[in-house]
Amino acid sequence: MTAPQDDDLVAQIEAVEAKLATARKSIERRFIGQEKVVELTLAALLCGGHGLLIGLPGLGKTRLVDALSTVMGLHGNRIQFTPDLMPADILGSEVLETAADGSRAFRFLQGPIFCQLLMADEINRASPRTQSALLQAMQEKQVTVAGEDRDLGTPFHVLATQNPIEQEGTYPLPEAQLDRFLVQIDVDYPDRATEKAILLATTGVEEDEAHQVFTAEELIAAQKLLRRMPVGDSVVEQILDLVRACRPDDPAASARVRETVNWGPGPRAAQALMMTVRARAMLNGRLAPSTEDVVAMARPVLSHRMGLNFAARARGDSLASLIEETAAAVTGQEAAA
Q1: How would you write the pLDDT of the chain (337 residues) with one tens digit per residue?
Q2: Are 305 and 263 in contact (CB under 8 A)?
Q3: DSSP letters of 17-70?
Q4: N or C: which end of the chain has fewer CB within 10 A?
Q5: pTM here?
Q6: First to last CA, the chain
Q7: Residue 234 to residue 47: CA distance in whole angstroms
């Protein structure tokens, strides 16, 4: 185990789990019927990471981020990424001001990135130069403007959205930036029953409102507690086996992985799995992660950290099914529907 599990740790984990259950219910009153999406987004925040939400317009991604900001007690900002967006529009800039006595001095005007929860809407519409403005912020939680390092909000999270269909006039995110996202969250169409519930809940005179459950300080405490959650040796070995089995040049890789994968996940993927399996266990009221958590988090953690080769793309191979197949082979357990 990574750490001993004493009575005090158990009590602390159970207390956070109770608050998380309340937070989850509050979010799901605003973002109806997408329990897995809510779980993955909360997992990203619990781990202190960032999430990439991929889905068509109109599926409630903006509503989800707005509800998260309220429930988790975070100061949030939103940036609509466009082709003409410049790095200074995100980071801020220095302006020359003249005082009443005639003296002049530079003053820094903060950009919208100085917040605790940033929604980067349609991130792939901005140019690579502007996308790169987020790289340092996402990794180091600070930005450098005019030669000076400036700390961002604490905590700091980015939830970026991307339209998977309309690719005209977009710039694919580079692998280095994709790797900064802890999880990729696929937002699909709701089923019929869920869509009916959405209609009834959102087209009347009043709508349910989210309410604050956490403060920023409580979220930071929960993030620190998550790192103390014990992880069994068998789960650690499964995480390592899975990540290494997804690398085409690794001896552990299957014939299908060697034939279809162009590049595989690096060590950051193993770190992300180690954190997210703990978060999923905590969100589901358990005191330690299991094999089930490894299988469930494999696709969200690995799908944006791997790439199919040209032949596999030409055949129409699915990266998602490859990851699920590999996870099942490594753990001996199929992914839940």
Answers
A1: 444 457 788 999 999 999 999 999 999 888 888 899 999 999 999 999 999 999 888 888 888 888 999 999 999 999 999 889 998 899 988 888 887 787 888 888 888 999 999 999 988 888 888 888 888 888 888 888 877 888 888 899 999 998 776 666 678 888 888 899 999 999 888 889 988 988 888 887 777 788 999 999 999 999 999 999 999 999 999 999 999 999 999 998 999 999 999 999 999 999 999 999 999 999 999 999 999 999 999 999 999 999 999 999 899 889 999 999 999 999 887 766 5
A2: no
A3: HHHHHHHHHHHHHHSTT-HHHHHHHHHHHHTT--EEEE--TTSSHHHHHHHHHH
A4: C
A5: 0.89
A6: 29
A7: 21
Neighbours of 184 (CB within 10 A): 19
What stretches of the chain show up as alpha helix (H) in DSSP? Answer: 7-30, 35-46, 61-71, 87-91, 128-131, 133-140, 175-178, 192-202, 216-226, 233-245, 255-260, 267-283, 291-302, 310-315, 319-331
Burial call 123-158: b when 16+ CB within 10 Å, e when fewer: bbbbeeebbebbebbbeeeebebeeeebebbebbbb
C-alpha 128/C-alpha 56 separation (Å) is 22
Q: What is the distance between the alpha carbons of residues 174 and 190, in angstroms, rounded to a whole number?
A: 30
If you ran DSSP here, which 8-state letter would residue 98 be given?
E
